[in-house]
Amino acid sequence: MIVGGSNESRTFAERWYPKSFEALRNYSLAKLTADLISGFTVGLVALPLAMAFGIASGVSPQTGVYTAVIAGFLISALGGSRFQIGGPTGAFVVIIAGIIAKFGISGLLMVTMMAGVLLVVMGITGLGSAVKFIPRPVTIGFTNGIAILIASTQIRDFLGLTTPNVPSAFLPRMALLAHFLPTIDPRTLLVGCLSLFVILVVPRLSKRVPGTVVALLLATVLTAVFHFHVATIGTRFGGIPEGMPMLKIPRLRLDLVVPLFPSAVTVALLAAVESLLSAVVADSMSGDRHNSNVELIAQGIANIASPLVGGIPATGAIARTATNIRAGAVSPISGIVHALTLLLILVAAAPLARYIPLAALAAVLFVVSYNMGDWKEVSVILRLSKADKAVWAVTLALTVMADLTVAVEVGMVLAALLYIHRVAQTTTVSAVTEEYIESGRPHILQDKHVPPYVSILRIHGPFLFGATDKLGDAAEDIASLAEIVVLRLRNTTAIDSTGLHALEEFAHKLTAKGRTLLICGARGQVSHMINHSPLYNLIGMSNICPDVQSALDRASEIVGSFDGVGDDAAVELSRHAPL
């Protein structure tokens, strides 16, 4: 089996230095120009998102912008990802609103700092890898739930409803909104629909033009020209203060440390999961490789610093990070420029924000909630076992109906029980017969000739959540692999949705590098899961072989005919290959 490098072989600099240090070694004027352009672009994209997340969380719009400035600067300057953009994100909206309702703003500031300390500890001790033990049905479940909750909080502003204070609980909130539905304001609805249309259409016309910025400008001009009396940042919050954010040490209450600790753990886990997921997306788009522990330390420092200006929790933002890469960023300097762009807007143009309609910001969050929901994954979950579907459904229901902390806790308990059940199922006791010995001959490698155009990897044991990163480590240097990669699953005793997703990602990476993936030897539950997953169609039926001898024969056939992955899988894989 091919294995990747170990932590022990890496130098101190490789293990702990921020990516910004590495990027500055061979920095040039051309790279600075690229970073300035991309950083300014992402700064414009981040402005409406930061304000919208602040409002949706129950704080002022400037609080979201202050968070994006401070956290965005520190995450880029100290982080372990070359392209990561940090700031407030939708993942925190629900939990922030709940903390404020129960403990007030001072409680939120304490939770943010406590979560920051936990993130630093996770990074220093290497516990950042613990986030991989959150299985995919749980992450999809609470992501779906958060998306639904965010969208539900924006219905009032999008429709211009006249209501009393909206409850924080989902069902009472929806009941109240339904009761006051007759109070829809047509002008507000027009502004919201126009903003939504622009946000969705502009990216189709030009990838480089931020649709959210265009939507906010058009909505603001429309409101001003036609004198629409709709709710704006000015009418609701009095505008955004001009100038630098003020430094203020939060008042720490020791009596709240224990009650706030579960919320701090939830914030820290969410920040870790989302930031590392964003870093993985950045790696797949850029070909770079992030440093998880350094990234978590930077996330922790950013969350410790954010409350010093009254900020809220922050983490890596997937959409803004992807925008940063597409805009041509070459180093973390782009993220620093993004933060400085937001600061410049605060100093020079903050008064203009008072005219932005809240309906336009609601449209922004509708799009954000849909994108963060990862809805395509739901169809994949629904094709898996009843147990996987149950974990997903319970996590989703508890996120929406109860509390995010409870949802993650219960989801993890269910996933752990499912893990134990699957491992227990892999234990078998059977007699060794002559038929058994003969049936195993096509699977052994000792008497097989492996040609130079074939690399063989094997997965031994259960390939479940918590172990899937080992495949990435084993194939870290794809360039060292041959044209055809055979993944031998003869001794893989169980697989789950997280394992299937890891195999799909592996297939994408191989195809992006012009290589072909064959799978062989899968048995029992593993074979059943693969045959009922998107992976089956992704690599093609003819590339799923019963044994290693069949896989070698298929490899010879591919090389002889130059038909790549065969069937229609080549087209499918190229369509899904990372940018």
State the gist of this model.
The protein has 579 residues and is mostly helical.
How many structural domains in the coordinates? 2
Strand content: under 5%
Give the helix/strand class.
Answer: mainly alpha
Helix content: 55-70%
Number of strands: 6
> Which term fits the overall shape?
globular
Write the layout of secondary structure elements.
Layout: H1 12-16, H2 19-23, H3 29-56, H4 61-78, E1 86-87, H5 93-125, H6 136-153, H7 155-159, H8 170-179, H9 186-205, H10 211-225, H11 233-237, H12 257-286, H13 292-305, E2 315-316, H14 318-326, H15 333-349, H16 358-372, H17 376-382, H18 386-401, H19 404-425, H20 434-439, E3 454-458, H21 469-474, E4 484-488, H22 497-512, E5 516-520, H23 524-531, H24 534-539, E6 544-545, H25 548-561, H26 569-576
Parallel strand pairs: 3-4, 4-5, 5-6
Antiparallel strand pairs: 1-2
Account of the protein in words:
With 579 residues, the protein is mostly helical. The protein has two domains: 7-20 and 30-372, no CATH class; 435-576, 2-Layer Sandwich (Transcription Regulator spoIIAA), CATH 3.30.750.24. The protein is 61% helix and 4% strand. It contains 26 helices and six strands. The protein has a four-stranded parallel β-sheet with strand order 3-4-5-6. Strands 1-2 form a two-stranded antiparallel sheet. Helix 21 (469-474) links the parallel strand 3 (454-458) and strand 4. The longest helix has 33 residues, at 93-125.
Structure characteristics:
579 residues; mainly alpha; Transcription Regulator spoIIAA; 2 domains; four-stranded parallel β-sheet; two-stranded antiparallel ribbon; 26 helices; 61% helix; disordered N terminus
